[in-house]
Specification:
Low-confidence stretches: none
Radius of gyration: 19 Å
Structural class: mainly alpha
Distance between the termini: 45 Å
Shape: elongated
Helix content: 40-55%
Number of helices: 3
Mean pLDDT: 93
Bound molecules: flavin-adenine dinucleotide
Strand content: under 5%
Length: 83
């Protein structure tokens, strides 16, 4: 399945020299319990000192792809309102 995906997405069709199928333990980061407050404080400081810089992505408002997309869209709208 992985080889098929690699072939379809990257057009690489050679066979691997070695391979390993394993669970990826601890692959998703967990935010610290005070993460929302830290992000809020960081955004307030950035807004005060660098009003045209906005933070987006998995480090701030959710790790999952839907969270990252929603955050990116929100920040893009905020940028458009600043223009
Ligand atoms: C193995 C793995 C499996 C996952 N599985 C899932 C899943 O099943 N479902 C799910 O919802 N989430 C999953 N996640 C989490 C999710 O994929 C990530 O949290 C999310 O994609 C992060 O999005 P992002 O836009 O913040 O960062 P990224 O997707 O990492 O995007 C950052 C981009 O910035 C670019 N970049 C970096 N530095 C620079 C620079 N200096 N200049 C210009 N560009 C730069 C990078 O090339 C990259 O394209 C998984 C993550 C991993 C690692």
């Amino acid at each position: 399945m992985a080889l098929r995906d690699i072939k379809n997405s990257l057009s690489i069709s050679g066979n691997p020299i070695t391979s390993e199928v394993t669970k990826w333990h601890e692959n998703m980061p967990n935010y610290h319990i005070k993460h929302p407050q830290i992000v809020q404080s960081l955004e307030a400081k950035i807004s005060e000192n660098y009003p045209n810089v906005l933070l987006a992505g998995c480090s701030y408002n959710g790790v999952g792809i839907p969270d990252c997309i929603a955050d990116g869209e929100k920040k893009a709208e905020e940028i458009c309102l600043k223009l």
